[in-house]
Amino acid sequence: MQPAFKAAVIAAALPMCVLLARAAEVSTAAAGHATPAYTSRGELVMPADYRTWTFITSNINMGYPSEGPRPPDSPTTFGNLFVNPEAYTSFMKTGTWPDRTVLMIEIRESGNTPALNTASRFQTDVRGFEFHVKDAARGGWTFYFIRPGKTSGKAFARTESCYACHEKNAAVDTTFVQYYPPLVGIAKAKGTFKKTAE
Ligand code: HEC
Fold first, then answer.
1. What pLDDT, on a 0 to 100 scale, did the predictor assign at position 31?
2. Both ends of the chain: CA-CA distance in Å?
3. Where are the domains of the chain?
4. pLDDT-based confidence at residue 11 (cuts at 50, 70, 90)
5. Ligand 1 centre distance from Cα of residue 41 (Å)
6. Rounded average pLDDT over 93-121
């Protein structure tokens, strides 16, 4: 099967898989937009409707120091940051995230066509989903990764570098609001923006 076609088949099958997974093993009721939901093994369930969530911003070529310097010929990737709408509405009023906030970066590969300027890039296949979830019932903010086409994904252990970097450098709670243009002004006005992140 051609990779692009295979990805399309997986994408088409995903909503049904999510429904089946929810019926079979979800321990938290996922009514309507209620998030987050977990499997009986404690994995985060892929939110089927995240494309209707609130879009915050995009990044390009995100990488972490532990991965070493980015090779000059590595393909451009995009990251699209979404949040569940209830959390966004609450942030706009308070300048911080309520319990059960789900922030998610959809990581996508990029393409180019000779008909366009060679420097231009558009978004293509999903490479994976990184989550940052605030849930007091599960020890507070937790990171997860879900692979494309999967219905759930595991948490990162608290010893992973994700936690230390976010705790030390992020502007609001453990989230990098300093890089999210629509939210910076709100957090500053509400006094939730950490001075150290200026
Ligand atoms: C060296 C610092 C660093 C490390 C390590 C790190 N991050 Fe981040 N992370 C950032 C920065 C900077 C941003 C904001 C940039 C952006 O989204 O454009 C960010 C944003 C995020 C976001 C968007 C929501 C938020 O909290 O602001 C998620 C989700 C995320 N990272 C997941 C992870 C995961 C999962 C890991 C571990 C595998 C990780 N990060 C490790 C620096 C880091």
1. 41
2. 50
3. 3-157
4. low
5. 25
6. 92
The single residue listed with the structure tokens 């060679």 is: 118
The b/e string for 168-177 (b: 16+ C-beta within 10 A; e otherwise) is: eebbbbbbbb
What is the number of residues in the chain? 198
- Return d(Cα 72, Cα 14) in angstroms, integer: 34
The three-state secondary structure class of 47 is coil
Whole-model pTM?
Answer: 0.85
Is the shortest distance between the CB of 133 and ligand 1 below 6 Å? no
Of 124, 156, 125, the closest CA to residue 139 belongs to 156
pLDDT for the residue 22 = 47
Q: Is the CB of 67 under 6 A from ligand 1?
A: no
Q: Helix, strand, or coil here: 115?
A: coil
**Contact assessment for residue 60 and residue 67, using Cβ atoms and an 8 Å cutoff:** no
Residue 68 Rama label (left phi>0; alpha psi -120 to 50; beta): left
User: Rounded to an integer, what is the distance from CA 22 to the centroid of its chain?
Assistant: 20
State yes or no: pLDDT of 32 exceeds 70.
no
Amino acid identity of residue 139, one-letter, is: G
CATH class given for the domain over 3-157: alpha beta
